[in-house]
Amino acid sequence: MPRTELEYPKEPYGTVKRYSPRASYALRTIHTIINTSPILHVSFNDPQSPFPTILPMLGQMGSFSRPSADEGDVLDLYLHGYVSSRLINISRHQPSDASSASTSTSTSSTSSPSSPLPGLPVCVAASHLDGLVLALTPNAHSYNYRSAILFGHATLVSEPAERLYAMQLITDGVVPGRWEGSRVPPNKGELSSTSVLKVRIATGSAKIREGPPGDDRADKEDKNVTGRVWTGVVPVYQVLGEPVAGPYNEVAEVPGYLGEYVRETNLVTKEAAFEAARKVAVKKGGEDE
Amino acid sequence: MPRTELEYPKEPYGTVKRYSPRASYALRTIHTIINTSPILHVSFNDPQSPFPTILPMLGQMGSFSRPSADEGDVLDLYLHGYVSSRLINISRHQPSDASSASTSTSTSSTSSPSSPLPGLPVCVAASHLDGLVLALTPNAHSYNYRSAILFGHATLVSEPAERLYAMQLITDGVVPGRWEGSRVPPNKGELSSTSVLKVRIATGSAKIREGPPGDDRADKEDKNVTGRVWTGVVPVYQVLGEPVAGPYNEVAEVPGYLGEYVRETNLVTKEAAFEAARKVAVKKGGEDE
């Protein structure tokens, strides 16, 4: 674990331009938002299409070479080829190792993307909605949210051991402990039929908004407006419901790791949404919209 | 309202290739998933960047020329330039009206994207997570979800009346009735400082997964596995919490339209997640993974 918080480089394409006090480039902040997002949106360009494409995928950040690395460290993003094989197929036709890279000697995941790194250029986004911010005027309406994007190069993981590492990482990302709680290890067929993409991160950023509405002074001082328009935050959070056993389930009780995960997640997410709603803005000046 | 359900054309870049029984091209299905998604992920290419970019934005589908159109009709997507002005700036430099379009006489929003329509090519994605599908093996794990993507061309809305229409559409998309419940109409400054993007849709698709896990027969018939691994679905749904009044709120009671929206949304989303978890697969053959 690094002693100081690492930050991603501020590349022109990756810099948050608006409301920049809300921006963060800290690896820990960004990686945590990505890892707690059950669905990631992955964008890439298909040479056959006039449009960029977005696929919803599962993913987790980790380090195969140093599995003990935590969320504040330099990590790779592993994506499961869950939703479509199009991205996998395009990645297959990208140069897949460093031999085609530039003469640059940089091996860091945060090396400049201007050097022609191998892999398919992708953008990955994760967004958590924490509240509806209802202000006096439509323009000052907002959301409380935590969002992150990462830019990087995706290649197919060819090494079986690394694919196995990523499969466990992603399965335990859905419910911690689920890997050991299911029928493992995968057999040969399962292992060979699973495609895992690894994204080497070039840079990324996060944006976080919390706190109550922030209207313009003119509206806040207009009694005709404040006397009529309710202002505040509707906290929003995701709930895990009571597990529903499937048709061929033969285990009478919901396993401990699962029950605990459901209870803890529900406590944490609800509390975080209410905390964000009640947060007092620290900065001076009031309005943030 | 059309008598038959309209469908988007199946373009090669927009066709769902995997698990195609889960795919839908019906406008109503796709538009409903988009309109009920509080955050949309919008992807585009910035000529300055080696990567595609994704921005989280607010948006709603509507028809300015026929406001009574419903979700099964041909609609445009209106996006609020909420999160970043980068997309707005790039769109500003795109040809913004039909004068630069091809000689094609098609005026339909679903016209072929191979004709050089004006605007910035974008992809818009919305994903709702409805459940964690926990199967016997990691490979058969899945989510219950509803996801949709749209492909289209984005241009800035220059007409003030259309911008006002879109602002109301998007505000009421956050909480129905909120537009009238807030200080409206926007003043001149608010109206001119708000950027609205309109996406003319080329095509789109949806994917929906519901129901219990579907493992391979070999695992389902292995008592060593079924006797040890719990299988089923953890329903997932978004909850709107009790509204939290802001620091300058002077309206004692939460307004009726807001309280009702919170109550109704919570009922519907919870029920939908449990219903998806319990859904019996209609198709024969069992396994779907």
Automatic annotation (TrEMBL), chains A, B:
Pfam families: Pyridox_ox_2
Segments for region (Disordered): 94-117
Low complexity bias locations: 98-114
InterPro entries in UniProt: Pyridox_Oxase-rel (IPR024747), Split_barrel_FMN-bd (IPR012349)
Protein name stated in the entry: Flavin-nucleotide-binding protein
Organism: Colletotrichum fioriniae PJ7
Biological classification of the source: Eukaryota, Fungi, Dikarya, Ascomycota, Pezizomycotina
